[in-house]
Prior knowledge:
The protein has 3 helices and 12 strands. It is of the alpha+beta class.
Amino acid sequence: MIRIFRIAVPVVSFMGVAAPSMAAMLSYSGSLSGPNESPPNSSPGIGTAQVDYDDAAHTLRVQVTFSGLEGVTTSAHIHGPTATAGTGTASVITTTPTFAGFPVSVSSGTYDHTLDLTQASSWNASYLTANGGTPAGAEAAFAAALAEGKTYLNIHSSLYGSGEIRGFLVPEPATLVLAVIGGLSLFRRRQTCRRMTPERRPPAVRCLFFS
């Protein structure tokens, strides 16, 4: 017997942990380096990235700081989804040929820009096509990949065309807390629903049963 629960809080997962999509702001960060590339390289470059995904406003704020690159920057993107969380390579998800306004021809710099995810221009055209051909479809697929730890931010350079430094995006502590709260909330609702007979079940709690 499979029970499907129609409740007010949709759920996404991060490595098996339920997260409420009602939490409008979800933050992820990554540590960028050459050894994090695939295959790894010996670049002394380092960097940090933070992305803040607002699933109510449908925006993605991208903040990056980097320094010490051996080459000079040519582009930067978010890639995904990889087959396995935290490893592997994947195609570009975000704007091509690079993030709008990302500093190029430099070995160090900072970046802070917010993408409007309702715009087709915020997505790689091939990613958009592969996910229903709409920004909404692309956003849903991206949110799932992000929550599953299967996306990474990659900075490409003149010496490392496939990427000089990169880092997988993992949830900030506050986002993990929201995931745990969402999981507990869903568990409590599920248990309550199981104890209720249809006659006693409030209209706000609807349980649909399929065999």
